[in-house]
Structure formats: structure tokens, C-alpha cells
Amino acid sequence: MKKEFHSSIDGLRLRKQKDRTLIQINGWCFHEKEKINVELYINDKKTECEALSIARYDVMGNYPRFSIDPHVGFMVKAVVTEYLKKIELVASAENTEETILKLSEHDIRRFIDNEVIEYSIDNYTEIDDEQKGVLVGWALDECNSNFEYEIKNELDQIIPSNVRIESRRDLVQLKMIDSSQSMCGFRITFPVTKEGKYTLIIKGKTSARELPISREQKKNQGLLKAYLRAINPKRVANAWKYLRNNGIRDFMKRVSLGPTLLDPYPIWFEQQRISLQELEAQKKIQFTYAPKISLIVATYNTKESYLREMIESVVNQSYSNWELCIADGSTNDKVENYIKSHYLSDERIKFKRLDKNYGISGNMNAALEMVTGEYLGLYDHDDFLEYNALFEVVKSLQVTKYDVVYTDEDKFDDSKGQFADPNFKPDFNIDLFRSHNYITHFFVVNMDIVKVIGGMKKEYDGAQDYDFMFRVFEQTNNIYHLPKMLYHWRMHSLSTAMNPESKMYCYDAGKNAILDHYKRIGIEASVKMLPKPYYGCYETTYMTPGNPLVSIIIPNMDHKDVLKTCIDSLFEVNTYRNIEIIVVENNSKKEETFEYYHELETEHANVKIVYWKNEFNYSEINNFGVQFAQGDYLLFLNNDTEMIRPDSIQNMLGVCMRKEVGAVGAKLLYEDRTIQHAGVVIGFSGYAGHINNGIDEDQPGYMMRAQLNCDYSAVTAACMMVKKSVFNEVDGFDPQFKVACNDVDLCLKIREKGYLVVYDAFSIWFHYESKSRGYEDSEEKIERFNNEVAKFQKKWNKILVEGDPYYNPNFKIELGPFIYL
Hints:
Elements: E1 5-17, E2 20-31, E3 37-42, E4 45-47, E5 50-54, H1 57-62, E6 73-80, E7 87-92, E8 97-103, H2 105-111, E9 118-127, E10 132-140, E11 148-152, E12 158-159, E13 162-166, H3 169-173, E14 185-191, E15 198-203, E16 208-213, H4 224-230, H5 233-255, H6 265-272, H7 276-283, E17 293-299, H8 304-315, E18 322-328, H9 334-343, E19 349-353, H10 359-368, E20 375-378, E21 384-385, H11 389-396, E22 404-413, E23 418-423, H12 430-435, E24 443-446, H13 447-453, H14 464-473, E25 479-491, H15 505-521, E26 525-529, E27 538-542, E28 550-556, H16 560-572, E29 579-586, H17 591-603, E30 607-612, H18 618-626, E31 633-637, E32 641-643, H19 648-656, E33 661-669, E34 675-677, E35 680-682, E36 688-690, E37 710-711, E38 719-723, H20 724-729, H21 742-752, E39 756-767, H22 779-795, H23 797-802
Parallel strand pairs: 17-18, 17-20, 18-19, 22-25, 28-29, 28-31, 29-30, 33-39
Antiparallel strand pairs: 1-2, 2-6, 3-4, 3-7, 5-6, 7-8, 9-10, 10-14, 11-12, 11-15, 13-14, 15-16, 20-24, 21-25, 22-23, 22-24, 26-27, 31-38, 32-39, 33-34, 33-38, 35-36, 37-39
């Protein structure tokens, strides 16, 4: 008999809780011809259950001969109170049905879990050179107990450990737990020996579990955590397809860019793309302000198919007031003949055949000479636009006549005929732009500015648009980012999009464009191009004229060894010498702490111990420390940090001395050298969150953000430099935020005054994280944290509602950093 149902049970969970049993069944099922329903039977009776439909693109890929809906996956949940003798899961179509799971009483006894505490050990890492182990996982029970965690060795001795309780929103998103259970994660750090054997003890009010810690749980490779939290069947299917098509080497290179890029972007793009009906509706709209947009293109022996698609994507625009100015420096007549034979009757298409190839800048300038519009759009001869691109640009000009509008863009893989690598950009970000040309396309500028600055400059050929944009931005701050995917950068064998090494001279020209930009605006700085694979990216080192005094403020309570590690690095690693260190003593108890204070003040004339005698309040403690600061620049530093890169302070100071900058944050690493902090985005979990968290220190993160200086709405005060004048201007830290939210609140106050908050990717530190204070691991601490978040939400409701300007709105902030599906 022909098989018409196809199914698989991927997961089964039977959990006994007092007088009830929780049932969860995961899998997939489809019928070759008909839609199906999945029903649960307990002891031969149909039982009410929750059945969730899940997209399973992996299943679609394994059954290509069938036309099936992607939502063939299911998660069935039920709670039953009766004794379980038999469980059946039945798939039914219109005229037939099939039992796809059948459990007898014996099977049920074998599968059922009577343990009260559920748990998972996600990762165990040993840091050999520090003799430390780091254990990450989660645990919960039906009472939402606040567990105690202990580590014991092979001699049954409890060893000292540091426990951090963490939110596990990933489990909520996967519907494994409810939102009320989200604070079930743990991160435990403890000393280890090479041959030691360790056990995790989880203690609840009425039960406990002991779990051996296995060294077989290898160290994650930086991105693993990010992928686990982002994984779904759609990503798995897409990753497997990419691996088959490109091989393991290219696949691993792609993996290093982060989980977002393993999304089926072409599917997302087609879902967002404008429909033909919408295009027709746009053509009927009459804008109050309808400027002519002039697109300039330099052609050079352009392939006919590329030329046709480039021109047709303009001809088919839903906004009609445009002109396309083409200057051709080809060595043959093919471009000229094609345009004259196909577009001679369209007066909006202007063509000039040049007497020779003047290079990209000279050819673009020849096209610029034909422009008659109010706005100029930069366009490459082998790229193409979405048909609504110009409409969306003009629509954005109706209320405010921006001097510059730029859009999001992606790449079009010519060999596969597929859209890829979306560049979801932030709003204008000058530090990111000085690090690499993140804007590229589509770039539209008011011709009044072009008339002031002139056209492209030959000496920057290969990066002529980068230099051109710098000169534009030096004339205006009236810039709008249009967060829609409207420009497609074609990847082919000769393009820099496909082969970055094909035009190395472009990157040298880019470096020169940045340097000359600094000279024009009076900034003393040096620029270094980053090595392969980061071509086209740059590190700026700003000079520190006068080498002003930096006052380093470190709150501390006991933990002498922790503080000593921090201060030793300031004296032994740090190369910037004009510093003073102010340790704010906060109710220490141990005599060794005070002995160390005395030693510091005796040996170092630039160390001062000041005494805070009230209860812990991070904001008030730091405000108190500032009162003793003599420097014009304040470096707020946690006692559990350690400098890695010797010029870290000087790097931060150079950035902070710029007049438009108010605060600077650093790159902070966990003990395992994965990233703890590389910028903060407002909105995660109704508050704020670190991005690029958990990836390896040398991984790029989304669109290189982890490796480059860029502006953010906030940075962490675990290592944050602030101009003293700006700190006083915003009245310092807000004392209502005693433990949480204080650094983000300070940054937002600084931003509110018009200053920039900059992430400095080249100031690098360890952050061992909150050793002196402990973690939010009690009901009291969790309640306090939630209360402070509520105050933050009330104070900063506007940015929470409108979204962080440095974070693209196409990303789904509720799902985690840089995820758009």
C-alpha cells in the first residue's frame, strides 16, 4: 500500500508534577495531497491539547517532489491528571488518518521524568592558563524556586564559586518556558585543576540534583551560543543548503559572520518586497514636493544584461520625475549601440560617449555635467534598484527636505541569481562611517551641496564615493536613513562585492579619504587599514594634545586580589601615564583590603582612597568619587576589569577629546575571550542589552560592528570615559538607579544634550563581571532590578517606543540582536 502520510517524532517529554503530568511532543507530519490535523488521545479518549504549527523548511528540502506547506511541524502540549496507560498522536486528513505515535503503559513508565528540577548544562569551558571553569546552563521547577548552586570536587568538598543568575529569553522564545520563568539561567565560575572531577549541586526548597560536569562538553567556539539562541528549522535548512553549495571552508567563513546571515534572506526579502498592485497605486500619487532626481552612472564595457537591468530598474520606477545620466568610457561601441537602439525615445535617459576612459571619477564627473535635477543619486553600472526606490526617497522629503537620504542595501549573487547579505544600516553614524563606508548605496544628495563641494576626485579612484560622501557630510547634518531594502549591489567575478582582493587600490584610496577628511576638519589622527579579511575597514587613532589628566574612579568592597589585578594593569600594562586613581571604598570588612589601600597610597602618589559610608548605591558612589577628581576626563572602571591592550586609555581619551563626543565605552571580554560588551542597544527585554555578546573577540559580528569604532545610544560604565564638563552638565548618575540602568540612563542624558556616545573597539579589557557586588540571584535583588527597569521605562519611554536610532528597525528587537526573522 502506498504511503501517503510522512512523519517524524523529534522530541517527547513526559513530566510528572504532583497530581498531574505534562506532555510535550515535537515533530512533523504531512499528507501527500491533503491538509492534516494532529490530535492527542489519552487512554483511548480524545484529549484537549495545545497544538502549535511550526515552519519546517528542512522537511520541505528533504521532500522536494511534494508541494507542501512549510508549516508541517508541530508542538503538542497537554496537562493530564489521570493515570497514563496509553498515549496516541493521530494525524487525520479528509478521508484517512494514521497514528504517528503510540506509547504503551510500559513505554510511558520508561519515558516519564519524576524529577522536580528540570535543568540543562549548555556549555562547560576550562580556561587553562587561569585554572578556572565556566559552567553555563539553566534550571527550574514548577514553583519557580530560587535555587542555590554549589560545586563540589571528587573529594566531596564544596569549592568556592561565583554564581550569576541570567535571563533566558531564548527559552521563552522557543516556548520551552513561560516568561515568568525567564530568570532561570546560571553562569558559574570556579577554580579547577587539570585532573579534577566536579559536580554541580542544584538545591531547591524541597529537592536537589547532583549533576556530574563532563569535560566532553567542549568549549564553544564563540558563536555557538549565538546560534543556539537563534536556531530554528528554517535556519538549519538554509545552513545545510549553503554547506552543500559552497563547501566547508566557505561555510565556516560564513558562520563567522553570525546567525543572522544564515537566515533565508531571499524569503524575507520577497515577503517585504513591494507588490505590482502597490507599484501601480504609487504611480497615481502626486507629491506636494516632487523634485527631479538625477542618477549618474559611469559605464565601461558593461555587460549587456547588466546594462539592461540597471536601466530598466530606473525606467520602471513608480516615481517618474527622474533622469538617468550615463557617461560611457568603453573601449567599444556596445554600450552606445544598445542604449541608442532601446532608449533613444526616452528623453529622461541622457547618454554621453567619452573620447576615452577617464577613470571612474572622471567618467562620473562627465555624467554629473549632464545633471539638471534638484537631487543627485549615485548609481553603479552593474547594480539595480527596487522599482519603488525613488518613490520612497521622495516620500521621505515631504515633511523635511533632507540634504542626504540613504537606504539599506543587499547583494545580488549573480552566479546563483539570489539576493544575499543584507546590510541593515543604522541612522547616521559618523564613527562607523570613519571606520568603513557602511553607507555605499543608495546615496541621494541635494545638488546645492554638490555645487559647493564639486564632483569626484581622481586621486581617490576606487573610493571616490567615500571621499565624496565625506565632503558632503562636512557640509550638513541634515541626513535621513531610509530603512528599506531598495538597492542591490551585484556580486560577480570582477566586483569587490564578490572578490575583495580584486581591487586593493580601493582600500588605500579609502584610507587617504579618511585622512584628508580629518585634515579638512582640523582633527589630528592617524589611520591604519585593518588586515585581511577586514579589507575596507580602518582603525583611527586620535591624538591627545596636551595629554590631559584622566581620573580613574573605581568603587570597591573587599576582594583585594580582584582590585589588585585591575590596578596592576593600570600601572604595568597601561602606556598612558597622566592618570590618577580614586578608589571609592564601600564598606569593606577585611583587614587585608585596608592594608592594600595603605600600600597603594604609600607606593603611588597618584592613588587616593576615599570612603563612602552609606549603603551601596552605584550612582551615588561614583558621583561621590567624582568630587575628588582633578582631571578633565573621568574613567569609570569596575574593580573586576583588567587592561589587555596597552594603549586602551589613550585610545579612549583621543575619542573623548573630540568636541562632539560625551562618552566612550570599551570592548570588554569574558575570561574565555568572548565578547561581553561591544555597545548597548535600547529596547531589549523592555530595557537595553549588549550586542555581539558571546562571540569570539576576533569575530566581526554583524557587518563588522564588533571590530570597528561606532556610535551607540549607550555603553556600559564597567569601563566608560566621560568628559567631566559633560558629566556635570547632565548632573551625573541618577541616584534613583541604585544598581541597574544607571550607565544607560547616563548615556541617554548625554545623547539628549547632543553629544555622541562612542564604542571604541580598540580599547580592550577583560571584565570578570560583578565579583564585588554579587548577582541578581535573590528575590529581593530581582525585585529591585525590576523596579529600576520600571523607572527607566517611565523616564525613557520615547526611545523605547520609537526605537534606538543606532539599530535598524527591520531587526526584531524581541528576538535578540541582529535577527530579522
